[in-house]
Design goal:
The complex is a heterodimer of chains A (about 220) and B (about 525). With about 220 residues, chain A is of the alpha+beta class. Chain A has helices at about 1-10, 15-20, 30-65, 70, 210-215; strands at about 80-85, 95-100, 115-125, 125-130, 140-145, 150, 160, 165, 175-180, 185-190. In chain A, a hairpin with a 2-residue loop joins β3 and β4. Chain B has a two-stranded antiparallel sheet with strand order 1-2. Classes of the chains: A alpha+beta (about 220), B mainly alpha (about 525). Chains A and B meet through β3 of A and α7, α8, α12 and α13 of B.
Amino acid sequence: MSEHESEQRTGNTRPEEKKISSNPLPASANDPRDIKDHSRRVFLFKVSLLVNGAVGVVLAVPILRYLLGPVIRKSDGYHAWITLGDVNDFPEGQTRLAKYRNPSTTPWDGQTADIPCWVRRVAGNKFQVFAINCAHLGCPVRWFSESKLFLCPCHGGAYYEDGERAAGPPERGLFEYKYRVAGAKLLINAGEIPTLSTPASSQSANFVPLDKVGCSSCQG
Amino acid sequence: MPGLEKQRPRKLAMGLYDWFEHRLGLGKPAFEAAAHPVPASSASWWYVFGSAATVLFMLQIVTGILLALVYTPSASEAWHSLQFLNDKVALGWFLRALHGWGSDFMVAIVLIHMVQVFMFGAYKFPRELTWIIGVFLLILTLGMAFTGQVLRFDQDAYWGLGIGASIMSRVPIIGAPMVHLLLGAPIIGSATLSRFFTLHVFVIPGILLAGVALHVLMVLRLGINEWPMPGRIVRKSTYEAEYHKLNKKEGIAFVPDGAWKDAIFAAAIILAVMACAFFFGPFGPTGQPDPTIIQTAPKPDAPFLWLFAVLSLLPPSLETPIILIAPVIIIAAMLLLPLVAGEGEKHWARRPVAVLMVSVIAVSLGIFTRLGITTPWSPVMNAWSSDAIPTQYLHERTPLERQGALVFQNKQCRDCHEVGGQGGKRGPDLDSVATRLTEDQMVRQVLQGGGNMPAYGNALNPSETTALVAFLKTLRGNDLRPAQDASRALTGTNPPESTATGEERPSGQSHLSKEAPGKP
């Protein structure tokens, strides 16, 4: 079908039609050898299109792989255990701002790779480490110790001291990092901006037996 | 001889022109296009916005290139390079201001252009595709405004990207890949800035240039829309013949007969941008893009303030569906408009629905933008420590009531509740709270929260609650009657005025006022 169309587009080259028609083709096209040449060239042109299409596909593979690099990389690969500080930097019953350098970073990230988080030491070695990002649209929540609330400046989301949603537009409580206490150090599993579909901590970080119990029983 | 002398340079110039024209061949079609006939009715001040948008686009390209001479697209340096432009580069501040104000003007003029085209029915046959390309040009213009705001790599840009990532994360199934594609990395950082730089400087302007060229070519090819007349119906079968007849009868050359208004308006607009840039200066940058500085209240630039307000006011359960579906519906509706309504009346007087739509959309955008400026939903984070309690609320009060005023401030109630015209607007103002709520209701509301108010049961001890409610009971506006518990009045027990604050009587749900505080 397409061959038929293309022949028509290239100008009535079928010999039987040519003889009848009053012939709009150039004079040289009367020569049967030129018609042969013409169909050969049309064929070669189609071949060249095919070759270019194939080259294009081959070229597209590395380009797409490059472009989709951040997507293809396994999300878990971003996360790592990071030391937040000494356990004793965080007084019991209080919530303090801490910061860490994001595990995957470049020197030209500058300050953007310094990520803050809220550390609540419930008691002993029992902690809660909250992401700074509001569960609504990611703005930085602020802790108000007097009213025991986290408040978001953007759209007014509010959370209780245990991170649960108190009021406002968020659908859920604050994002929490998985943590463990090693020696006198507090570690969290982090590395990615937490959103509704990207986790604060690696999902496979659960294998660390210490998190589940919050560690108060296992650490001296 | 002097006449010949004078003619020599002219001859030389003509010769030069001919030399180029023989090789380029651009002059003849350009002159023909410039002088093409347009209906005399369309040489109107209402028809100047399209060319003004194009001129502003050119201004943005020129000023953008000039800024790129100094700007450093690196997360660690971008903010400093903008400070450098503001303070150290001669007239750097002015170029930044031109580019920033030019952006706001361009968004505004593109929107006005669109409204004019809509009201004049110019999207109808045969100009449907011109409108559709125009819709994409609007989206691209807004894309330039957003990516440009990101390049001003300050706190607003940083947290604006956080909002962008959070919106992306709400897409079902492919949310996480979308976030990674947007940010280019697991966090907002150098990779993010680099890709927004690429979008703002290469990708979107490239598409925009091609789109504008196509848009203008189509206007030339199809002819500018004639001034609509009530009762002159567009029909696909007859319109083009009618248009050509009209053009033959009353057509004038676009250049110079029609174009002088475009030129004057373009000059006025550029002058206005320059004036705004000179008197109001550049936008920011605000604080450094350091996420550990959390004392910030991020806000988007003017074109997106309405969206910022909408995102705050949507009910949580509806937010994700609306964020994801509404843009698709809005864009689809704009694209389909000329295909659905390609014929019929053009004049606004015969299209009441169109007039109503434009009015409602314009008023809504205005209201939401105003809300985006005042952000009544945000707590005033320092009201508790900075706003004074009006003295009349402390005069002749018992120690317990004054203690309650302290609790009121210390527990940061003021951040969300106004008293004496100062404080947050997130909750209702409390100047006359005691006329709306009985003591029991106040205790319940404070301890358990409700509506949009968090529960303070964990943040208040019993004596603080007692003092706080004692203070709140004194807030009765201009000595209005306090709210009364009807059931208690009926049974004759515990008349409200004499109810001891410590006396806890469970008040049934039915006693609660319908006007419970804390409505958003």
